[in-house]
Amino acid sequence: CELIYVGDCGSAGRPSMRGSPFQFRLEAIVVEMQDSKSGVKCSEQKLNISTIPHVITGVDVLTWITNKMKTTPEEVQAFGTMLVAYGYIYPLQNHKKLVMCNNTSLYRFQTPYFWPTQNWVAEDSDYAIYLAKRNIRKKGMLEPYEQTHYSHLHDWMNHKWDFIVMQATEQYKAGKERKKPDRVVFDCQERAYWIVNRPPVSNMFYQQAIMRSKVKSSVSLGALAKYVTTYKNHDPFLAPCLPSNPWQTDNDTYWTCNTRRVDVPTKMRVERWSFSLFELLSDLRGRDDFKTFLKKEFSGENLAFWEAAEELKWGTGSSMTSKAETIFKTFLAPGAPRWINIDGRTMGLTVKGLEHPHRYVLEAAQTHVFLLMKKDTFFRYLKSPVYKDIQKKAINPDPHNFSPAQLEQNAQSRSLGIHPIILWQQEEEEKAKAAAASAPVDVKAMMSKIDRNK
Amino acid sequence: FPKQTFSLCCKPFRCRSLPARRKYMRSPLVPEMATQEVQLNETLSHLKTESDTLKTKLEEERAKLHDVELHQVAEKVDGLGQFVMKTRRTLKGHGNKVLCMDWCKDKRRIVSSSQDGKVIVWDAFTTNKEHAVTMPCTWVMACAYAPSGCAVACGGLDNKCSVYPLSLDKNENLAAKKKSVAMHTNYLSACSFTNSDMQILTSSGDGTCALWDVESGQLLQSFHGHAADVLCLDLAPSETGNTFVSGGCDKKANVWDMRSGQCIQSFETHESDINSVRYYPSGDAFASGSDDATCRLYDLRADREVAIYSKESIIFGVSSVDFSLSGRLLFGGYNDYTINVWDVLKGTRVSILFGHENRVSTLRVSPDGTAFCSGSWDHTLRTWA
């Protein structure tokens, strides 16, 4: 990659949170927590043989946050844990578990030098020196994951290993010259900093990989080959497009006869809808045809739900709550006008999830509905008169046969087509019309309207 | 800050604070350190054994399922005929190296970005330039067209990804409505809209990928796991679910779950930086292109690499790859100015295309598969069909 290197390629650790407004507010809170009068209560604690000053307990921290923010216990707990996860507060006892415990567990405020907002990136060379120093102090002191890091760093930083060992020795000697309590405190701070910035890795990835279900190559490779065969005639590089490839003849009929809302689609396009439900739904013209079929069967609610769930998933964050509400009222609430028939467990989980809606809250229900359509409705559609009808009606454009003079002419007069912005505006209008037309009739409102008119 | 609380926070030593006279002294390896090395090696070897055991077990599991090779399956498939692929359009207008391009869903418009900071929207069919934006930075390495066709996103050395809503009015100043969405701590290497205009997925030189809400600029999910710059990404075709694949300077291709931020599969078989990753149209496999001059195919269900597309005569890196509509052909843009076309199933090269006068930096097949477009350091873009 011959680009301009901005920073060292190998030391891409976490992105620092530099400059984000959220953590300046966070810092202000952390400082407030340390106020001698109104902050979190602190005391001296004996840890092993040393006395550590300014120790706080988890329960005191959480109480302080509750009083300050006046919010639910869950939020308070989450906020407390974030302070530990990001390294503003570190645990003195269970130092690898970066959570805030609601009990007498001991914590300490991290020195601002080590705050994540400070401008130095936790570089690999610093980490290497830290590990080497700990190894000098006490042989065999490194944990297994630290040893993995150490050996990895030893490999790729080998060229400057003498320098690293030397720096580690210097720091070790200087550390020995400090008073014992200072040294203990500093060691805690430094260790906490590195736990946040170089979290323990385990062999979990391999364990998960072993457990993941895999299929035989004959099955998966067979499927890849089958896909190619299925789509062979639809690939413009492998089979001619009818009437002609616009790029080759400068004539865009191929595009105009395959537009979104064309009345009569081409035979190739209709054939492609039969390849999978995904193909049918991805082509909006195909989806329209499917909707025609569903309307005849009075079973349009599954597809409507699926579409609404897609809108929620890919929509803006701010619209999620209102969309979730509408979806609940329309599809999931008992007695809802377009109630979808999903199993009790999924329904229960979904309704509960909607209390705190997020992007993927409808995932389980959406998958259930999609599978239902895929395994049943889709095949009935392909056998239905609606589909057979459109198959018959579909056209097969004759291939173009332009003379060189005509090709020349085509090149001079290439069509501009319709601008995508205009198309999108038209689409939005159509969608609004369709939504209004298919909205369930509010019987009460209509009755009261009739009453009023009387 | 309250003095007493921090009285014991001695400033920790950093390398740079040591007295200069000792800073760069090279000390010989002292015997005491040699014994420490031996002990460390002993405990390390135990850990390594565990790691190796797991790796071996994983390989054994994979091998049990490895009952056939791709070329064996391909024997039953017809061979390909001769190809006539020509440059159908040459788009001239960039003043410097073209770094990235993307197609609009209307199958004819494209957006392209270059080293001089210019982002241009073209109707590639007529070759008309419709919009031009000048970014406040050079090396705009990433650009993407929104699914609606109403906006484009781009970024590069500014470490950001910005969205520019497009307009029917060609004289409108697009920069006025620019929206900053993503913020990384190093250069932006790739960006892509998801299924709507409302979310963008980005990858960066800071080693992470991230998913953003366009309207609020909020970070929705971040993806950590690469050990070096992430250079490329591609979203899985929808039915297969909410996943995407990324490739980086650490030679790894990682598959991610967008919902949880977890890396669910990882492949490390390339010998150098992975510059490009692209899903097979069914979503069950993906291809990669690397500086090691090879393209490779990875089968996601069997969890392994299944093909390597290489030739002794090809020694320059691949910058960009994409599949034809059926997945039968793999197009690769190379640093030796050529485009190689591979038969994905049989593993052979079916065509080599000349035309660009400098390295090919970006290559995408059009949404309906009727053409592909290549961008190059020779300042031009070409559509081929």
From TrEMBL, chain A:
Domain annotation RGS: ranges: 276-391
GO molecular function (one): GTPase activator activity
Ranges of residues in domain DEP: 36-111
Domain of life: Eukaryota
Entries under InterPro entries matching the protein: DEP_dom, G-protein_gamma-like_dom, GGL_sf, RGS, RGS6/7/9/11, RGS6/7/9/11_DHEX_sf, RGS_DHEX, RGS_sf
GO terms classed as biological process: G protein-coupled receptor signaling pathway; intracellular signal transduction; negative regulation of signal transduction; regulation of G protein-coupled receptor signaling pathway
Name of this chain's protein: Regulator of G protein signaling 9a
Species per Swiss-Prot/TrEMBL record: Cyclopterus lumpus (Lumpsucker)
From TrEMBL, chain B:
Subunit structure: May interact with RGS9; this interaction stabilizes both proteins and increases RGS9 GTPase-activating protein (GAP) activity, hence accelerating the deactivation of D(2) dopamine receptor-mediated signaling.
Sequence ranges of the WD repeats: 91-132, 181-222, 223-266, 267-308, 318-352, 353-385
Name the UniProt record assigns to this protein: Guanine nucleotide binding protein (G protein), beta 5a
Keyword Repeat on entry: yes
Source organism superkingdom: Eukaryota
Recorded family membership: Belongs to the WD repeat G protein beta family.
SMART domains, per database record: WD40
GO biological process: heart contraction; optokinetic behavior; signal transduction; swimming behavior
